Amino acid sequence: MTGLLVLTAVELEARGLARHLGLAPIGGSAWPRFAGGAVEIVALGLGAAHLATRLEMMPAPALVVSAGACGALAPELAVGALVVPETVLAPDGRRYATAAVGGLRRHGMLLTTDHVLDTAAAKSRLWLSTGALAVDMESFVILDWAASRGVPALVVRGVSDPAARGVPADLARVVHDDGRVRSMRAVSAVLARPRALADAMALRTGTAAALKTVAAAIGTLARTL
């Protein structure tokens, strides 16, 4: 049985966390999957779209962690800040409490949406209407899956983009729903909008900072389990 099952959206997140944690790719897997010791990482695609098929045959873990990058809604959250919410809110108002596990302090609420927030104004509206600190597209889906199996679940996210900056739609389309980056879409975005390159570099730097923070927290969790 896997002790700690870490679930990300995109391949880049899974590979980045695996590199920080010293995990190796699982040979023969048709999707991004890494393991080492009691930790396993699986990428589920945007919005956890491939959760059902990629976790279908997996035995129940001791703990599920929704991990990776998130966007800040609260203005005080800087790039690289750790977000470990007490509650995860769905767009329809449903919510799940996260598990109190390990030495991680939980605080506040994270919102899961079904779309990328491309402007600071969109983020501001959600912050004011929900009070959530940050936003992602997977955590509620992952917590719902864990609850259906009676497995405790936690969210460990790092801020990749601050409240003052959204993720432009052309860059959001670079990641396919299976979680893999489509290089030709990135090239097309840069050719069509010169500013896209600077936006992409800022997002890449922010994501790297976020994953470093998240990996350190997951390492702490792994040592306490």
Topology:
Layout (H helix, E strand, L loop, with lengths): L3 E5 L2 H11 L2 E2 L7 E4 L2 E5 L7 H4 L8 E10 L9 E2 L3 E3 L5 E3 L11 E4 L7 H11 L3 E3 L2 H10 L4 E9 L7 H4 L10 H10 L2 H30 L1
Parallel strand pairs: 1-4, 1-5, 5-11, 7-9, 9-10
Antiparallel strand pairs: 2-3, 3-4, 5-10, 6-11, 7-8
Helix pairs in contact: 1-7
Describe this structure in words.
The protein has 225 residues and is of the alpha/beta class. The chain contains 7 helices and 11 strands. Strands 1, 2, 3, 4, 5, 6, 7, 8, 9, 10 and 11 form an 11-stranded mixed β-sheet that branches. The radius of gyration is 16 Å and the shape is globular.
State which percent range the strand residues make up.
Answer: 15-25%
Radius of gyration (Å): 16 Å
- Average pLDDT for all residues: 92
Gap between N and C termini, in Å?
13 Å
* Low confidence ranges: none
Report the principal-axis shape: globular
Question: In sequence order, what are the helices and strands, one letter per element?
Answer: EHEEEHEEEEEHEHEHHH
Question: What structural class should be given to the helix and strand makeup?
Answer: alpha/beta
Profile the largest sheet. 11 strands, mixed
The total of beta strands comes to 11
Assign a percent range to the helix content. 25-40%
Number of helical segments? 7
